[in-house]
Amino acid sequence: MSAGPKKPNDHEGHTPDELGTAIEPGTFRIERLLPGPVERIWAYLTEREKRSKWFGAGPMDLRVGGRLELQFRFSELTTEKTPPGKDDSCEIPGRITQCDPPRLLIYTWGDGPDASEVTFQLTPQGRDVLLVIIHRRLGDLAKMVSVASGWHTHLDILADHLNGRKPRPFWMTKVRLQEQYSERLTA
Predict the structure, then answer these.
(1) Residue 180: strand pairing partners
(2) Whose CA, among 20, 121, 146, 155, lies 20 to 30 Å from 130?
């Protein structure tokens, strides 16, 4: 991927090192170095209230076999209004397949045979925490680009919260990143 994880340093551009990569067909990987400690980042992944600030709310039964229901309300992540033609909300069910607090969380993204899988790995690095997200079993290129730009945008918003900054706009950021990922993932 890159020489090392990068901390987002502004609200505008993204360096090539910040972009995630396709590590194999149908699998996307992205990483961020975030201000720790690891328990803090774990809480933002697993606690409904904290998770709703950067990603999606909803219940999560934090045990192997436990159900989760991610409830996305994009207009609640930032002050930006949802553009016409975009859905402001969606729900994604899943089931936890591995859970090792505060280092590893894996769950399905959806139900049934077409469900994909998301892995969160947290590794302390001094005062910071390396968060690696791997999303597997993604379908075609369009799905990969959408997922990549989505994860990247959500992680930018998480970094903004953790660093005490006003969260950047969700849709404007995601649209810009879709263009970058479309180029990167087809190269």
Answers:
(1) none
(2) 146
pLDDT tens column, 76-113: 999 888 888 888 899 999 999 999 999 999 999 999 99
Q: Which CATH superfamily is domain 20-186 in?
A: START domain (3.30.530.20)
Q: Is the dihedral of CA 42, 46, 48, 52 positive or negative?
A: positive
The secondary structure of 79-92 as a DSSP string is: SPPPPTTS-SEEEE
**Can you point out the beta strands (E) in the chain?**
21-24, 27-35, 67-73, 89-100, 104-109, 116-125, 128-136
Q: Any residues with CB less than 8 A from the CB of 116 and at least 6 apart, and which?
A: 108, 109, 110, 135, 136, 137, 138, 147
The domain segmentation of the chain, as residue ranges, is 20-186
Single-letter residue type at 76: E
DSSP designation for 132: E
User: How far apart are the C-alpha atoms of 132 and 30, rounded to whole Å?
Assistant: 6
**What are the pLDDT digits (tens) for 107-151?**
999 999 999 999 999 999 999 999 999 999 998 999 999 999 999
Dihedral angle at the C-alpha atoms of 140, 19, 176, 54, nearest 10 degrees?
Answer: 90
Q: Residues in the chain, how many?
A: 187
Tokens of 95: 């089931």
